[in-house]
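Sat 14:20. Reprocessing the chain from the morning session after the first attempt stalled halfway. Input below, unchanged.
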Amino acid sequence: MNEENTNASAPENAAAQENGQTSVQPAAEKNFTQKELDDIVKQRLDRERKSLPSKEELKAFREWQDKQKTAEELSAEKIAAANSRAEIAEARCAAFAKGVKPDAVDDVIALARARVGGDVSIEDAIAQVAEKYPSFCNAVTVPAGEEKPKITTGVSFNGGDKAVSGVEAAFLKRNPGLKI
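Finished this time. Tokens:
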């Protein structure tokens, strides 16, 4: 039966080709197993890795690049690194001077660096951050013209009220050697 179908379709294909028409026969799809797909991906990755330099080659290349630098370039890099360390130290000192808690110094500096630029120095930026986020500071910063808030504990230490209640009077009467 298959032979009849293929034989019957052969003349039709020939006639279709003569008329300029082509028949498209569905190609059989190949199903891959997971192992086959893994092997294909592994082969592609291996080919790609072969085109990349090894760690030793990269290290040798970087060493070669360092050797190609002039003394001026090397000194410029050292100067830039020293300047960076100095800026960080100055920012840390400014943060401590503004009363920033030691565990919050790096956070304050990071926030202040976003504000630095134009007319704003790192010291001014740290002051702005300390004012906006007082929880970073040891002491409460009070804006100019305002009073520092008073913190009370409920106990008066300045001698306050000298009036003695009846209970205290009776207690002192029974215990004359005690001072309150």
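Confidence is low (pLDDT under 50) at residues 1-9.
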